[in-house]
Amino acid sequence: MKHRTEQFGDASLILGDCLEVMGDLEPVDAVVTDPPYGIGFQYESHKDNIDGWKTLMNGAVPLMKSIARFVVLPCCQIVLLPWWYAHHSPDWLIAWHKGSPGHRSKIGFNDWEPHVSWGRPEKPMHDYFSTVCGFDDNGHPCPKPLPWAEWLCKRAAKKHQTILDPFMGSGTTGVACMNLGRKFIGIEIEEKYFDIACRRIELAAIQERLPFEEKVKPKQESMEGIK
C-alpha cells in the first residue's frame, strides 16, 4: 500500500502496513505497542478474529524483536498465554492492574492484564504496575489510557531515545513519548485512526516545545494588625 508520512517534532508517523514498513526501519530502542486483540472489533483493514490475530502476531513479533532492544505488548486474552509460549516464548510477563472495566472472567471480573515482553528495558521495572483504566473517547474502539503508556515508555527507553509503536491506533504511545521527551515512530494502517493520532501527537509535540515559564510564587501577606 502507498505510505504517507507526517513529522511533528521528534515524532515520525507513517500510514501503512507495519509488516511492510518495519523491515525498512533503522533499529530503535524499544517497542511499546497495543496490537488488535482478536475479539471482534470492526476494523477496515484487519479481520479481528483469533486466526487473523495469530497471523498478524506471527508476522509482527519477529520484526519487532529484530529491530528493538526491548519489546512489550498486552496479552488481552489470558487464555492465549499458552499460545505465546508455544510460538513466541516471552522473556517475562508484566501484570497491569487496571481495576475492573466490567469485563467478565471465568470467576467474575477481570481486573488485570498480562503483558508479554522480550529483551531488557532501559530502566529496571517491576513486573506489576497499576494505573487508571479510564479510556479517552477519541474515536478509536479500544484506546489504552495515557498513564499506561507513560509508565511503560518511561522505563522502556531513556529521554531522547526512540520508541516504536507499529500498531499506533489513536496515538496514545506517541503522546506519552512527547510528554516524556522520547523520540517516537508510529505506524498505523487505517487512515481514520492515523488522522486522529496526527492531531493528538501534533498538539503534544507543540506543548513539549513551549518554553518553560517560571511559576509566580505566592506572596506571603503580612499578618500585622489582624486579630
Q: Round the mean pLDDT to the nearest integer and report it.
A: 86
Estimate percent helicity.
25-40%
Number of helices, counting only DSSP H or I runs of 4 residues or more: 6
How far is it from the N-terminal to the C-terminal residue, by CA?
77 Å
Strands of the largest sheet, in order across it? Answer: 1-2-11-10-3-4-8-5-9
Encode the helix/strand succession as letters: EEHEHEHEEEEEHEHEH
Outline, from the CA principal axes?
Answer: globular
- Uncertain parts: 212-227
Biggest pleated sheet? 9 strands, mixed
Percentage of residues in strands = 15-25%
Q: Which structural class best describes the helix and strand composition?
A: alpha/beta
Radius of gyration: 20 Å
The count of DSSP E runs of length 2 or more, i.e. the number of strands, is 11
Features:
single chain, globular, alpha/beta, 227 residues
Description:
The protein is of the alpha/beta class and 227 residues long. It has 6 helices and 11 strands. It has helices at residues 18-21, 50-67, 81-87, 146-156, 172-180, 191-209, and strands at residues 4-8, 11-15, 28-32, 68-74, 92-97, 104-105, 108-109, 112-119, 128-130, 162-165, 183-188. It has a 9-stranded mixed β-sheet. A hairpin with a 2-residue loop joins strand 6 and strand 7. The protein is globular and about 50 Å long. The N and C termini lie far apart (77 Å). The model is unreliable at 212-227 (pLDDT under 50).
